[in-house]
Write a structure and sequence with these properties.
The protein has about 450 residues and is an alpha/beta fold. The chain has helices at about 50-70, 110-120, 130-140, 170-175, 205-215, 275-285, 320-345, 365-375, 385-400, 410, 430-445, and strands spanning about 1-10, 15-20, 25-35, 40, 45, 70-80, 85-90, 100, 125-130, 150, 160, 165, 180, 185, 190-195, 200, 225, 230-235, 245-250, 255-260, 295, 315, 355, 380, 420-425. α7 packs across α8 (about 365-375) and α7 (about 320-345) packs across α11 (about 430-445). The longest helix is centred in the C-terminal third of the chain and has 25 residues, at about 320-345. The chain is globular, with a radius of gyration of 22 Å.
Length: about 450
Amino acid sequence: MKDVFLGIDCATQSSRSVLIDSDGAIYSRHAIDLAPVQRGSDGRLTQDPQSWLTAMDGHFAYARNEARKQNLVIAGASISATSGTFVLTDSNGKPIANAAMYNDGRAANPLARAEKIIGEVGAGTYLFAHTPEYIVAHLTGQPLSAVATDWSHAMKTGVDLHTKDWGAIATETAKRNSISLPSVVAPGSLLGRTTDGDIPLYAGMTDGCTAQISVGATSIGSAVSTLGTTLVLKVVGDKEIAGPGFYSHLLPKERWLGGAASNLGGISFEKYQSDIKSWDQKAAAHGPASFAIYPLVGTGERFPVANKDMKCVATGSPQNEADEYRAILEGIAFAERYAFEILESAGAQISGAIYSAGGGSRSVIWSEIRATVMNRPIATVKDSGSDLGAAKIAAASHRVESSGGGDLAKELDKFNSSTVEVIEPNKLEREALENRYQEFLTLVKPFQNAGIR
């Protein structure tokens, strides 16, 4: 029987799982919807955490069934989730309110949101759990208070990655509100085994980190852009980088995943999504747009422009819909280049092609535009996703545990990238897009709180 590893991504609207072997070959994939996120008039964004548990039971049942059919043994599992999403429970692990999402608007960070919840339900003694801890307690039967958090999912809550424990502000805030915080462990640590004792559960990392891991980009200098609803960027380095709108996660033992997220992405051209292939063809035939745009849909941007009041801005008006669509693709590419330049100015070092993951990476014209704007090859991959990255963490953690110790990052390096195509810059459009990029920089300068240093 062959060993396989289960990775699960508990996202916002849905959850996904995948079974892989130690070489990264995929044996099954599955998706289950989660409860809808509820929005309140005060900016709150909440979700029923029971839907996490129902989905996890479904994923494990599906994976076990697939393993039986294919004569496989599930030798480990890991869970990835959004950074900062949490549930507050009583001392027995029962939620006192629905889970607060990573972008809940009641406060700026998870523990401040927990204070708001306590203000509504009243004083008491509470347990704080990010999505993975709450799920692991359910899967293992352990008391919630006994389940550790990994320093990746807990970073926005207040973990100090240098001490690898809770920072002073988080500790003081938790004490003031009678909140017990989970102990902190490294990603890849064994958290327990499923209640039947047969599947080890290893600590994972946030969805942004596992998306990068999924494409096989874990070596120093590797960079990944994940093009989904929004744009997420990561660069692997040997030192921490941080600044307005960007920060670094720590991949054990000593690799830093520096990066950030923009509010630009697929959401910026949502009105064209129903016939995206046709619009891609029109954008390719059109050539460079007649104007530059920062195509925000709502108000506020995180990175590369750190400005909560910023809205969509442009240097002109589109000549037609093809011109508008092309300008939006270029605008996101300009923002991507600007973002990487800011990260490089902070100490990140990018070598070789930029790996491209997410649904947007399937657009050949968008990849060509991005390659031309950044004057760097774009490598598209066959297989990616936060569930796949979580599965690779499970496999690498299993190897570390089996060998009696080791380096999780070095074990992850053993997975090869599933590169499908390397797209080179279009030399014929290089000058026009470079000129437009300079217009773009002038366009966003009034809104930029942290420029290239």
